[in-house]
Amino acid sequence: MIKKYLMERMSWILLVVCQQLLILLIAYVDAAIPLMPILYIVFLSTMVFLIFLIIRFPKETKFYRTLEEWESPLELTGMGEPESPFEQIVEQKISKQTERLQQIISQNQLTLEHEKDELLSWIHEVKTPLTAMHLMIERLEDKSLKAQLTYEWLRIHLLLDQQLHQKRISFIENDLYVEQVDLKSLVYKEIKTLQSWCIQKGIGFDIQLEQMEVLSDAKWLAFIIRQLLTNAIKYSDASDVILHSYEQNERIRLEVQDFGRGIDPKDIPRIFDKGFTSTTQHSDHTSTGMGLYLTKKAAKPLLIHIDVHSKPDAGTTFTLIFPKRNDFISMMSM
């Protein structure tokens, strides 16, 4: 403790000593100044300074002695040295702050889970009157009114469906059931759902399915194809959408090709980013930037690779490249 006390005040001690030596040097060099009186004064001032240091020692080291009393048995740090009292106090504060932040995070997670469950429940409840509405629309005899109402109903249905899958996609791994999926029936079902929209825009389909079955999850694959078809219809006018399945390099591929406005080459690397719409059609308020983002998110756990080729004003081709059977076996065995 004495050593620490002296080391902390070493600069002041050296200053006083240097002053005393300077006074003695001046008295020794200058013959007009008597040396013995100066030596006596230096001796007295040095003694006063030493007494001052001794008196201040217990008062100025009181804080350190208090810390030593608080200090728990010394623990070795990672470097093999005991922690200082200051380090222990800081560590305790950090530990308390970390514990508090963990509690806040846990509470926020519970709140988010509760809100997500409520939203999913609400979507399911809304689907019931929406289904009843669709049945009532089907009974209408006025074909023009029926077509308009069916189109608006479809828009609401697609928005709810996208919102439902957006909330489910965070735990998609728990919802997967991989099986042989009949590609033909799945594609025709999705086209039938979008039929009213296609009729309104004068869009037809050219279906060329050389491969009828793929290994995937039927529900999530239907969602992926639905998003690609929705994009193709949304950005096309009075043209055909081609769906072509074939096998290449031992992998089944499904192409969805449209002849719409296409995608600018500089936008292609960003089309799967959340919220991205377009740089050339930035004022298009119908785009949400979520469709392709969710498509990519859903394709990843299904081991489906999505390839994109597009030219502005010439159309876009999305290719779903399905995995081999061995890829799923390897994934499940991990």
Automatic annotation (TrEMBL):
<keyword id="KW-0808">Transferase</keyword>
<dbReference type="InterPro" id="IPR005467">
    <property type="entry name" value="His_kinase_dom"/>
</dbReference>
<dbReference type="InterPro" id="IPR050351">
    <property type="entry name" value="BphY/WalK/GraS-like"/>
</dbReference>
<dbReference type="Pfam" id="PF02518">
    <property type="entry name" value="HATPase_c"/>
</dbReference>
<keyword id="KW-0812">Transmembrane</keyword>
<dbReference type="InterPro" id="IPR004358">
    <property type="entry name" value="Sig_transdc_His_kin-like_C"/>
</dbReference>
<feature type="domain" description="Histidine kinase">
    <location>
        <begin position="121"/>
        <end position="326"/>
    </location>
</feature>
<protein>
    <recommendedName>
        <fullName>histidine kinase</fullName>
        <ecNumber>2.7.13.3</ecNumber>
    </recommendedName>
</protein>
<keyword id="KW-0067">ATP-binding</keyword>
<keyword id="KW-0902">Two-component regulatory system</keyword>
<keyword id="KW-0418">Kinase</keyword>
<keyword id="KW-0472">Membrane</keyword>
<dbReference type="InterPro" id="IPR036890">
    <property type="entry name" value="HATPase_C_sf"/>
</dbReference>
<keyword id="KW-1133">Transmembrane helix</keyword>
<dbReference type="GO" id="GO:0004673">
    <property type="term" value="F:protein histidine kinase activity"/>
</dbReference>
<feature type="transmembrane region" description="Helical">
    <location>
        <begin position="12"/>
        <end position="29"/>
    </location>
</feature>
<keyword id="KW-1003">Cell membrane</keyword>
<dbReference type="InterPro" id="IPR003594">
    <property type="entry name" value="HATPase_dom"/>
</dbReference>
<feature type="transmembrane region" description="Helical">
    <location>
        <begin position="35"/>
        <end position="55"/>
    </location>
</feature>
<keyword id="KW-0547">Nucleotide-binding</keyword>
